[in-house]
Design goal:
This protein is α/β, with parallel strands linked by helices and 212 residues long. It is 34% helix and 21% strand. Strands 1, 2, 3, 4, 5, 6, 7 and 8 form an 8-stranded mixed β-sheet that branches. The longest helix is centred in the N-terminal third of the chain and has 16 residues.
């Protein structure tokens, strides 16, 4: 059996050949759905000037979305699909961002990150991906010194697309709470998607949030 990362790479490479370097090449039905996911992830914290890892960066669309809003993090993009990383390097050049080919579970960071965002990496139902969800979530959170934002397709979706991985929000939330007591779940921006924001330091420990 091929490892999930190989199957996922083939899936996205075929999408790029068919649809080109746009949102459809990443498996999104509409650009607006991609951007709604970005907005939910951006609620994690203040990315401007922060060390940000975009796990499963695709074509670097999150970086472009942030830049359009005047938000300039110290950005690293990671993706298992080499054509996507090649596209990112051509697209952004020497703009201060860096792009790396790698699998989340095998990636060993050479620097700490304040924030980690993983948008869309659990969408395609590659064989074995369901078993990798918890280890990947644990690894992603371990790389974040401040917080992690990650999204999933929801079992509450009124319709399901074939070949996609839909998860029960309560199950994912329950596991996230074993990693940190500070978790926020947003299931309000689309009926078929939810985002978890997980924090290393609980916000209620911030002196600025405590009651006088």
């Amino acid at each position: 059996m091929s490892p999930p990362d190989s199957e996922t790479t083939r899936f996205y490479e075929s999408h790029v050949r068919r649809y080109g370097y746009g949102y459809r090449g990443l498996g999104f039905g509409r650009r607006s759905s991609q951007e709604k996911r970005f907005a939910a992830a951006a609620a994690l914290g203040a990315f401007h000037g922060a060390r940000l890892l975009d796990a499963g960066c695709g074509f670097g669309d999150l970086l472009a979305w942030l830049d359009a809003r005047g938000i300039q993090p110290r950005y690293t993009g990671l993706d298992i699909c080499p054509p996507m990383i090649e596209r990112c390097r051509r697209r952004f050049g020497e703009a201060g961002a860096r792009f790396l080919v790698g699998d989340v579970l095998e990636y060993e960071p050479d620097q700490p990150y304040d924030y980690v965002v993983a948008s869309g990496i659990f969408g395609y139902a590659a064989r074995g991906l369901r078993a990798r969800v918890q280890p990947m979530l644990e690894k992603l959170f371990a790389m974040a010194e401040v917080g992690l934002a990650v999204n999933f397709l929801s079992c509450c979706a009124p319709r399901r697309a074939p070949g996609r991985l839909y998860l029960e929000p309560a199950d994912v939330l329950q596991f996230a709470l074993t990693l940190t007591s500070a978790v926020r779940m947003d299931h309000t921006y689309m009926p078929n998607d939810f985002t978890l924001c997980m924090y290393r330091k609980p916000p209620w420990e911030d002196p600025g949030m405590q009651e006088s």
